[in-house]
Amino acid sequence: MCFSQLAKKAIYLWATIICTSEITSNQGNYVFMVGKQIMRWEEWCILENDPQTTTLPYKTLQYDKTGDSIFTQLALEIFSKTNISFLKDSRCSTIFVRRVQPKFSASNPGKDMDVTLIQTDFEGYQFLTCYAEPYTTLDFYLSPFQQELWIVLGTTIATLIALTTLCQHFFILLEQQPFSPWMFMLASIFEEGCMPTRIEKQTFFRISLGIWCLMSVVLTNGYNGIMIPELISPRRLFHPISFDQLDCNSIFKIVLTYKNKDGINLPSSTKKEIRDAANTWSFVYTSFIFEVYRLSTLVPLNAIKTEKADLNLTNVDISCYGLLSAFEDSSSAFEPSLVKRVVPEFLAMLKNPALAYSRSPSNYSMFSELTLFAPSHAFFPRGFSYLSEDLTESDIQRQIEGEVVQCGKTVFIAKSSKIKLEHKFLSKTYPDIKFFMSEQTVQSYPTGISFQNIWGSLVPNTFKSLNEAGILSHKETQKLSQKNINRTAAIIMETSKDFNPTNTTIRGAWPTVFILAGTLISVSIPIFIIECRRHIGPLLGFMRHKFSFRHYRKSRRVAVKSVINVAVALCEIGKNN
């Protein structure tokens, strides 16, 4: 039986014929036997963002630890072990050639239908910042005990107060004895409890209130031991953990809130507010997307045009968060390209849902990230200009780093893998600064390796085995870690030798002091009024009587003085006559 072998060139479609005298048919069908006898010859092309990586000779089996060539060298070693040829340069553009894409992203899929995917990870956008706002809260008064303990404690106190009050009125001898059970229990918490002798001799009061005294000592000491460290510690810090907290009073949030709801039952004023908000945001959205489109179109032409395009920062609000991100390649998922993005990565990502919203604005739940698509946010670092001819990618990275480590209202946004790497580098470079990563991830999508036109090849299975063994993820982590080897800090912070220590003060504790004093005074006044209500009434009556009597005496003196003055005046008139 003879089998034709596929030639290397299309003009010699069937170059050789291999014949065999005997075939053992112990498994499979005829197609399986034919496929087993035919010698497989394959050609593969590796699609990398950097075209220089596709020109490496396949005989180089040592891993190159720099740049994006780690995956290429790994693929070349697989090809060399399986007798597979490696295509280079223009031959990769052939329609039916086998291709492997090491950086497939579901956010930018290709158009080819014959694709096999190996998912290695999930990517998305997160942010990093060191910006934090201190705030004061009264939670430390409740944090020492859990909620269940507070409920049991309140129930116990209420029960003891009710029982002791009833027993006090039940005993005739104690009915006239001035004693407030709830005031005693409150005073015992502060270790100032005092009980009248007549009540102290009663067995019920000695047992119930005695047990409470023992409980109050244990609870008070435990409460103070937990609460005091919280009281004297620095104030808590608020830092953003989700993209919703980066919003700068976006009008689009009003549109998102009501557009997906049934507007029939809404009042007319609310409907008018929604219409006004939608019209206002539509104007802002149209203006900003036109500005982004203008930059994307005109900036690449700055080298040949006399009138050059640059940023328009007149609408940037310094009170809003700065949303900084790096400039990255805009290469396709299946075709390498040298075209660079002229806008930052996160702004380019927001442009895609913005364009989708303009075409189909009905499903508002898909466009929640558009609350950040506003000209009030700064998407570019300070001092950036498209007119700077000597500005490199490393310079932009240093500008972003220098602005982020100032701990202003600025966040750095990137993909999850790069954010983790950046957080590790900044935390190591600036140990005195605490950096925070967002807990929310937006625009999540799977990433991995894609294979086109596999045609029964065993190469995808080899890569799948490497992925299951963790080799691919290890190589990807290794490649990312190489990017910060020679990277230095953008800003030189003060070292411990140059740092001049300052005296410790209680300036930060003054708000807590005023809160405690105000709370105690506010609670003491109602308690004083309730407990002294029997004396307050007569006291107010006495003060009113005293004021009335004084006013009466003053009026009487004025009247007597007037009568005397009239009598004296009449005497003077009589003498003159």
TrEMBL record:
InterPro entries assigned: Insect_Ionotropic_Sensory_Rcpt
Gene3D superfamilies per record: 1.10.287.70
Keyword Electron transport: no
A cellular component term, taken from the record's GO annotations: plasma membrane
Glycoprotein listed as a keyword: yes
Principal location: membrane
Residues spanning the membrane: 149-174, 204-223, 509-530
Highest taxon of source: Eukaryota
Cell compartment(s), UniProt: Cell membrane
Membrane disposition: Multi-pass membrane protein
Keywords: Cell membrane, Glycoprotein, Membrane, Receptor, Transmembrane, Transmembrane helix
Record's protein name: Uncharacterized protein
Organism expressing this protein natively: Folsomia candida
